[in-house]
From TrEMBL:
SMART domains: Zpr1
Keyword tags: Metal-binding, Repeat, Zinc, Zinc-finger
Biological classification of the source: Eukaryota, Metazoa, Ecdysozoa, Arthropoda, Hexapoda
GO CC annotation terms, alphabetical: nucleus
Keyword Metal-binding: yes
Classification via InterPro entries: Znf_ZPR1, ZPR1, ZPR1_A/B_dom, ZPR1_jr_dom, ZPR1_Znf1/2
Family the UniProt entry places it in: Belongs to the ZPR1 family.
GO MF: zinc ion binding
Keyword match Ligase: no
Record protein name field: Zinc finger protein ZPR1
Residue span, Zinc finger ZPR1-type domain: 42-200, 272-431
NCBIfam families: ZPR1_znf (TIGR00310)
One biological process term in Gene Ontology: system development
Organism this protein belongs to: Glossina palpalis gambiensis
Length: 470
């Protein structure tokens, strides 16, 4: 091989290594001149000649990872832009109900995926899932798009089907009345993939006009998303499938081959994707025991590409009989050093700051009170709470004032109460007394869950007696 060819191979290898070091999904940045857009020759849906589709993998606040697609035909000038979610399907579906009362509510940003069903009960409007592409829009934008769709071919319809055209015109007038806020209405987004969102203009305070509920998907909804379990794949015949072990990637261990004690002393490692840049990385997992509490599973991930470091804690036991609520007074340095286990079903609240964080925002983690506060602050400052570059000055000023108050809490200039509410009962806050009884600054309340909390945990449909019978 000539020296020229060797040099070319070396240069190509270095270029590939340089590409692999970059995150797969990158933040949108005006200073980034290397956008890494992919160009594909594709057919124009207008004139059926060849055009160019450009694909860009990036991250948008609220929507996690997305694929931006832009098509343009050089012959007829036809253009089409689409956005598709590239983020993973969430564990549960989500249902968001927004009570639209003012024009400010009409301007709320809305992110919806392909699997989102949109409803406005007051005008009997329903847009079924998978009838429209996912998009980033506003509440008013959803109504506008509906009106434009109804107005298509309306002139032709008036000639051929005058009764239907008159009914559509009357419906459009009702939608226009919603746009002009002549009456309040409810916008409902139901997304089985869990990747939809409605902006909270009062963030980080709780949204008074919006209610979000997570739900367990049915088997039909899982199949629609392409999720199947082994009973579906095996056609329901589990015993026959288990006999054909060669068909399984994961095979059962023999009795005694892996004991419970072995699991306690072992750090398990498996391949996963970085939560920030979606590059391949390793996750370490270990089962450990927290004194005076229970066993938990600790998982830690480090990405060599973007340097992201995350840790997550999951309960090793089941759901407790009762929910638990902790109220911690933060006044001294000693209060900041308490150990805290926050499960993924535990929500956080600081009443003095009117700040509320949902259970899925910070995930499960084993840290201290100070660590929880710093994580909340980091998410407010650097997270995808809002579009920082396009937010109005009032919103930016309100967020800055809140962060100033939050810094006063961390520096102990302001005394506040931190409330951890876990309906599953799998969270824990350390007591500063030796006998593990609650100290003067720690209140622990166990309570009976209501129907909605049991529904969110999937307990209402669990059959605990005669569960082996159909």
């Amino acid at each position: 091989m000539s020296s020229h060819n060797i040099e070319s191979v070396s240069t190509g290898s270095e270029a590939v290594d340089e590409i692999l070091k970059k995150p797969l999904f990158r933040d949108i940045n005006a200073d980034d001149t290397d956008a890494d857009a992919t160009e594909i020759e594709s057919a124009c849906m207008s004139c059926f000649r060849s055009g160019v589709t450009r694909l860009l993998l990036t991250k948008i606040p609220f929507f996690k990872e997305i694929v931006l697609m832009s098509f343009k035909c050089g012959y007829c000038g036809f253009e089409n832009n689409e956005v598709q979610s590239a983020s993973e399907i969430q564990k549960r579906g989500i249902r968001i109900a927004l009570n639209v009362q003012t024009r400010t509510d009409l301007n709320r940003r809305v992110v919806r995926s392909d699997y989102t069903c949109v409803q406005i009960p007051e005008v009997e409007l329903e847009i079924p899932a998978q009838t429209q592409k996912g998009e980033i829009t506003t509440v008013e934008g959803i109504i506008d798009r509906t009106i434009r769709g109804l107005n298509q071919d309306q002139e032709k319809r008036k000639v051929e089907h005058s009764d239907a055209a008159a009914a559509i015109d009357a419906f459009i007038e009702r939608l226009q009345a919603l746009k002009e806020m002549k009456t309040s209405f409810t916008l409902i987004l139901e997304d089985i993939s869990g990747n939809s969102f409605i902006e909270n203009p009062d963030a980080p305070a709780a949204d008074r006009n919006c209610k979000t509920v997570q739900f367990m998907r049915s088997d039909e909804e899982n199949h629609l998303l392409g999720i199947y379990d082994k009973t579906d794949v095996a056609g329901g015949d589990i015993e026959q499938t288990c006999k054909r072990e060669d068909n399984h990637l994961l095979k059962p261990l023999d009795d005694g081959a892996w004991t419970y004690e072995d699991l306690h002393g072992e750090v398990l490692q498996f391949r996963t994707l970085c939560p920030e840049c979606r590059s391949a990385c390793e996750t370490n997992m270990k089962l450990t025991n927290i004194p005076h509490f229970k066993e938990v599973v600790i998982m830690a991930t480090v990405c060599d590409v973007c340097g992201c470091k995350t840790n997550e804690v999951k309960s090793g036991g089941g759901i407790e009989e009762k929910g638990v609520r902790f109220e911690v007074t933060i006044a001294t340095k000693e209060d900041l050093t308490r150990d805290v286990l926050k499960s993924e079903t535990c929500s956080l609240r600081i009443p003095e700051l009117d700040c509320e964080v949902g259970p899925s925002a910070l995930g499960g983690r084993f840290t201290t009170v100070e660590g929880i506060l710093l994580a909340m602050k980091d998410q407010l400052e650097n997270g995808d709470l809002m579009f920082h570059d396009s937010s109005d000055e009032t919103t930016k000023e309100r967020l800055q004032k809140f962060l100033t108050k939050f810094n006063d809490v961390i520096s102990l200039k302001t005394e506040v109460s931190l409330i951890l509410d876990d309906p599953a009962g799998n969270s824990f806050v350390q007591s500063l007394l030796d006998n593990d009884e609650p100290d003067d600054k720690l209140k622990i309340v166990k309570y009976e869950r209501n129907y909605d909390q049991n529904e969110e945990l999937g307990l209402n449909d669990i059959k605990t007696e005669n569960y082996e019978t159909p």
